[in-house]
Structure to design on (567 residues):
């Protein structure tokens, strides 16, 4: 386990290094001068020169690359071109609402997909299974912005039971604000998770060892929860890590639709304001989160699969 | 059946819509207004929503299809090169960078590029294509490696058939099967990403008649004139849900 953990940690660090390098290379390689782009509507030579200096574009590429990596490693994310504030402040302030949104979504998503997946597998081929399967297949990759406005129209406009946006409210103090955003976020991610849990459970329930446990006369719920489920979980845990990618994409759109002042809203603002250092830092930050989640998922999957430990 | 209808209606609107659009009211009215001459009311700029919806589907389908085609071309190139080479380092060099691309959320790559260069439709299509490439390249590489190791392919090679003929006649047909099964998923991903880019305002200009742009631009008027948002949103949801169901059906039948 220790050897696997260390090896996997090394891979994660290498990935992070490549992401940081990729962001730098992309900034270099794309046509157009970042300083001119950042100057935007005021292409005044003095301002362009100032931005060029602020971005360090007057230095040779190699120096800039080493500087960029060094600053990142030291936790210095640079300064915003628009407000002049440290990027760490800009992003740090926005993280809380996004963390609440992501946390609550995961807290809803996990039990829900486990429950639906297990139920569908237990009634394999039945009416409930077909209904769950049809709904989860249908919801896969439905754009959040369209789904969100439909839900807002039904629940906020016609039924009037839920708020349409999160404007002016705090997500933690008024949890009802979270209902629609979390529903939209969970809908898309739940689809693939439910299908994987279902497939894993169907396989596990048909396996020799579950039949063996059954013959020993264990209570049915114990067979399902204690013996079949853990083996069905491995692919689901890894898929969960993949859904973090989707979840982020969803959060970008959902924060825009429901006016949540979170990390993604800050990134979209920075993109429209051409605030390049903020976007760069945010990309590396989100990349780091995704890498960490995948790392954790792989470690969890390794821990959950005793076979892999023996094989080593 | 349901899936077919769900795909057919938005596709029909997208294809035939531009032909019918001239029949709708061209004159600008009051913003977010509904009344005679405007069956679905007006949008934030006072334009007829029905006309906009009829014109707005073509770009959704066209951009997604273009991005998918480019992605398949790139993916085939990389995947076949990685599978066909006898040099392991070239295989690694081609496939490893693609793994990293999977570590950063697709929408974030799109936003990063949008902040660095000139935004616009071309940029969105290229980024969506590149983001979709790794999955396709992997699939093609795996399927090709699988196919060339089949006895039939080996027999062809032993009989002295040239390599390109084995690839063109046998491997291409074997690879087409998993590729077709996956195509629906790729297309929905492209529709999703292109739409999200347009919704976030980094793709088409804000005044465009495009379903995703319409949803974004008219959100503020949801309480006043809901159809300006709902009509394009319903069409997008119907299209993607239908495509999902069709793709699932296709995969199951091919299995």
């Amino acid at each position: 386990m220790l050897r696997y953990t260390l090896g996997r940690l090394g891979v994660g660090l290498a990935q992070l290094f490549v992401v940081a390098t990729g962001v730098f290379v992309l900034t270099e390689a794309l046509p157009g001068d970042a300083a001119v782009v950042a100057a935007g509507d005021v292409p005044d030579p003095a301002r362009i020169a100032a931005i060029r200096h602020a971005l360090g574009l007057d230095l040779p590429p190699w120096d800039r690359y080493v500087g960029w990596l060094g600053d990142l490693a030291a936790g210095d994310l640079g300064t915003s071109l628009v407000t002049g504030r440290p990027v760490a402040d800009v992003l740090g302030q926005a993280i809380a609402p996004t963390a609440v949104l992501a946390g609550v979504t995961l807290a809803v998503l996990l039990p829900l997909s486990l429950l639906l997946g297990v139920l569908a597998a237990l009634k394999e081929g039945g009416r409930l299974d077909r209904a769950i399967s049809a709904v989860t297949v249908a919801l896969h990759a439905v754009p959040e912005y369209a789904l969100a406005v439909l839900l807002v129209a039904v629940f906020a406009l016609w039924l009037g039971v839920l708020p349409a946006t999160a404007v002016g409210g705090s997500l933690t103090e008024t949890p009802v604000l979270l209902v629609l955003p979390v529903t939209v976020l969970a809908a898309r991610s739940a689809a693939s998770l439910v299908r994987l849990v279902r497939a894993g459970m169907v396989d596990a329930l048909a396996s020799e060892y579950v039949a063996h446990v059954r013959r020993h006369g264990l209570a049915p719920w114990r067979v399902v929860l204690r013996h079949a489920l853990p083996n069905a979980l491995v692919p689901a845990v890894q898929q969960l890590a993949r859904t973090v990618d989707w979840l982020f994409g969803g959060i970008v759109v959902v924060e825009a639709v429901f006016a949540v002042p979170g990390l993604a809203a800050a990134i979209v603002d920075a993109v429209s304001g051409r605030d390049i250092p903020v976007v760069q830092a945010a990309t590396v930050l989100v990349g780091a989160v995704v890498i960490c989640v995948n790392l954790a998922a792989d470690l969890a999957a390794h821990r959950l699969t005793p076979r892999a430990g023996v094989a080593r | 059946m349901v899936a077919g209808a769900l795909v057919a209606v938005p596709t029909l609107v997208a294809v035939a819509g531009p032909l019918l659009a001239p029949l709708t009211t061209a004159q600008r009215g009051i913003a977010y207004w509904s009344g005679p001459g405007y069956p679905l009311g007006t949008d934030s700029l006072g334009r007829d929503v029905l006309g906009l919806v009829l014109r707005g589907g073509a770009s959704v389908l066209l951009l997604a299809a273009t991005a998918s085609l480019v992605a398949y071309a790139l993916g085939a190139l990389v995947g076949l090169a990685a599978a066909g080479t006898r040099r392991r380092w070239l295989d690694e060099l081609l496939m490893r960078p693609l793994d990293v691309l999977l570590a950063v959320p697709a929408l974030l790559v799109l936003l990063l590029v949008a902040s660095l260069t000139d935004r616009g439709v071309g940029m969105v299509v290229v980024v969506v294509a590149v983001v979709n490439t790794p999955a396709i390249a992997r699939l093609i590489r795996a399927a090709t490696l699988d196919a060339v190791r089949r006895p039939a392919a080996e027999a062809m090679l032993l009989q002295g058939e040239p390599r390109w003929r084995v690839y063109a006649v046998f491997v291409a047909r074997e690879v087409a099967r998993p590729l077709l099964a996956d195509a629906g998923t790729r297309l929905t991903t492209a529709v999703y990403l292109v739409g999200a880019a347009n919704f976030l305002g980094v793709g088409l200009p804000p005044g465009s008649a495009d379903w995703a742009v319409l949803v974004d631009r008219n959100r503020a008027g949801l309480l006043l004139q809901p159809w300006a948002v709902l009509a394009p949103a319903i069409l997008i949801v119907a299209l993607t849900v239908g495509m999902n169901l069709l793709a699932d059906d296709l995969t199951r039948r091919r299995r």
Notes: The mean pLDDT of chain B is 77. DSSP finds nine helices and no strands in chain B.
